[in-house]
């Protein structure tokens, strides 16, 4: 069996695979500022009673895992993971905590990619910050509206100021949230169009947001391919890379 650890900026994912089959997985909200000893403790608990032959690390904080037998780049692992879940995928969108990525794929290999990490806008952290500002009393997926508040700034700091201004004008929170989704989509869609993608996998925790998915699909004019658990795509890809190479 292969164990992969994908350390993101907000969550850490553990996936156990054998013979191309997912045996088990766990997702923990740890953040990237974690001690290796804490990860090792969870790994030992996850491995208990299982014959794990190799451990592979990937993700934003992959270099923190000194006990890993192999460390693999996140972008390449995402491509492998996308191909595992959807063989016909030629692209992937991953909205992470610190950056957004769009990959162009061929048979699971990354042939081109765009990384947007210069500004928080369009990332999971931006969405979390917006939620804090809005002080929501329901789950985010419960807010929806046919009307979109206009959030024109492409800078996270200025976008936050716009949201505060909209609240002061008594604009309904549902409309502001739809405007946030629209703003995120406006950052992602041009990246996708540059790549000329057709069959696109959507991975990461943000891919669990059904309303954002609807907004993105409307902008793209395409139905996105979403695994049952979109947060483990990268970790699954890392396992596959460990199987492929000694």
Automatic annotation (TrEMBL):
Keyword Nucleotidyltransferase part of the UniProt annotation: no
Stored Pfam families: BcrAD_BadFG
Cofactor: [4Fe-4S] cluster
Keyword Repeat: no
Highest taxon of source: Archaea
InterPro entries xref list: ATPase_BadF, ATPase_NBD, CoA_E_activase_dom, Dehydratase_Activator_Redct
GO molecular function: iron-sulfur cluster binding; metal ion binding
Residues annotated as domain ATPase BadF/BadG/BcrA/BcrD type: 5-242
Keywords of this entry: Iron, Iron-sulfur, Metal-binding
PANTHER family, A to Z: BIFUNCTIONAL PROTEIN [INCLUDES 2-HYDROXYACYL-COA DEHYDRATASE (N-TER) AND ITS ACTIVATOR DOMAIN (C_TERM), BIFUNCTIONAL PROTEIN [INCLUDES 2-HYDROXYACYL-COA DEHYDRATASE (N-TER) AND ITS ACTIVATOR DOMAIN (C_TERM)-RELATED
Name of this chain's protein: 2-hydroxyglutaryl-CoA dehydratase subunit A-like protein
Organism of derivation: Methanococcus maripaludis X1
């Amino acid at each position: 069996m292969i164990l992969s650890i994908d350390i993101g900026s907000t969550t850490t994912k553990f996936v156990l695979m054998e013979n191309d089959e997912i045996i088990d997985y766990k997702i923990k909200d740890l953040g990237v500022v974690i001690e290796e000893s804490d990860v090792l403790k969870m790994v030992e608990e996850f491995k208990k009673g299982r014959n794990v032959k190799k451990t592979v690390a990937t993700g934003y904080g992959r270099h923190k895992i000194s006990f890993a037998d192999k460390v693999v780049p996140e972008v390449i692992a995402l491509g492998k993971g996308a191909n595992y879940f959807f063989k016909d995928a030629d692209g992937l969108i991953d909205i992470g905590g610190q950056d957004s990525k769009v990959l162009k794929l061929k048979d699971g290999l990354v042939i081109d990619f765009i990384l947007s990490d210069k500004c928080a806008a369009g990332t999971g952290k931006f969405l979390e910050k917006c939620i804090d500002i809005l002080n929501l009393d329901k789950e985010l997926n419960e807010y929806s509206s046919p009307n979109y508040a206009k959030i024109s700034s492409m800078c996270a700091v200025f976008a936050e100021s716009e949201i505060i201004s909209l609240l002061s004008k008594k604009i309904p929170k549902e409309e502001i949230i739809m405007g946030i989704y629209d703003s995120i989509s406006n950052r992602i869609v041009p990246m996708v169009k540059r790549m000329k993608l057709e069959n696109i996998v959507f991975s990461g925790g943000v891919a669990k947001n059904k309303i954002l998915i609807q907004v993105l699909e409307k902008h793209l004019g395409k139905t996105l391919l979403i695994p049952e658990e979109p947060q483990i795509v990268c970790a699954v890809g890392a396992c596959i890379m460990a199987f492929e190479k000694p």
